[in-house]
Amino acid sequence: MLMVSAPLSGCFGEADSDVSSSSLQVNPEVLVAGSFQEVELTASDRISIYIPYLIKDSATGFVQNTTVIDIGRGDTVTLEMLVPPRITGVFILVGEYGRVHWPIREQSESWESWLSRGGDSGTDSQGAIRVPANNSTFDGLEVHSSVMPGSVSVKFVSSIRQASVTPDEGGAQSTGLVHGRIVYDRLFELSDPTDTLDPVDGKAGYFDRWAGQGNAAYEDAALYIIGEMEGFGLEVVAHRYEYTDIMNVQNPEAYNICAYKWGSVVPDEWMVFGAHFDVAPPANAVLLDPHIVGFRTYGTRAGAYDNSAGTAMVME
């Protein structure tokens, strides 16, 4: 959502004064991380601001990553902004009204580290150029290695993360969108190393579930996930993909397990959560193509991180 309000005194084209972060007031003063929220941006001078976060157009539902907005003296702009869930605040870059060239951070650094090394001085070898809106409400930015962007002022706005559960329940590792402890319990169930008499993998968890070659452990894990999803009351459809190896033998290569919960308010809109539930197996002695030797060539038996963690998140 984008709304602009201007008092009468802001309509007579006063000259720009020296802009700084103090020229921008943000309401609320402390933002909530992990969810879209309305943020009011009020300028005491004519300024442009670069917001390097996700912005949502409430009229269209379009979400855009970063934007640059001009704000007149005394004007207020209201945006729907998403603050990342695992940071302590956001950094908004402030420049002169109508500014085109902006400094940017490196892909491998945070805005906090960018600022601490003096990135706001604008002397880096690359910057970004403002691009007019195209099929969206908001202007965008394009990176150009030849741009010398010049200095900017930076406004820091604190944020808090409102966990839905206590730290003892996993809240310190959760955004509040999922229950951290429940996800952990599911992860442990999938990768439980307790020895058992299970003829498939000999473990309480679902080990050795690499895809293909008619792997019984993979099939066992697929049936487990299908049963759990059906137990949640979801409509489950399993898609099986096969391949033919060099011996002209057809083997099951992979499942897609799709679980559907149909909406009633907006049934034609989709929200999709996905993860691969197979794991990469341990290396074999000769590291040959698995389609030749019939078994995989790398990885672990449990796959707790890759990708039991993702599977647990989707299931919960």
List the helices and strands and how they pair.
Blueprint: E1 3-5, E2 24-27, E3 31-33, E4 36-43, E5 47-56, E6 63-71, E7 76-82, E8 89-96, E9 101-103, H1 111-116, E10 127-131, E11 140-144, E12 153-161, H2 180-191, H3 216-231, E13 235-244, E14 250-260, H4 290-293, H5 304-315
Parallel strand pairs: 3-12
Antiparallel strand pairs: 1-7, 2-4, 4-7, 5-6, 5-7, 5-8, 8-12, 9-10, 10-11, 13-14
Helix pairs in contact: 2-5
Quick gist of this model?
The protein is of the alpha+beta class and 316 residues long. It is built from 5 helices and 14 strands. Helix content is 16%, strand content 30%.
Written account of the structure:
The protein is of the alpha+beta class. The protein has two domains: 3-161, no CATH class; 167-315, no CATH class. It is built from five helices and 14 strands. It has helices spanning 111-116, 180-191, 216-231, 290-293, 304-315; strands at residues 3-5, 24-27, 31-33, 36-43, 47-56, 63-71, 76-82, 89-96, 101-103, 127-131, 140-144, 153-161, 235-244, 250-260. Strands 1, 2, 3, 4, 5, 6, 7, 8 and 12 form a nine-stranded mixed β-sheet that branches. It has a three-stranded antiparallel β-sheet with strand order 9-10-11, with no helix packed on it. A hairpin with a 6-residue loop joins strand 5 (47-56) and strand 6. Mean pLDDT is 82; it is low at 1-17.
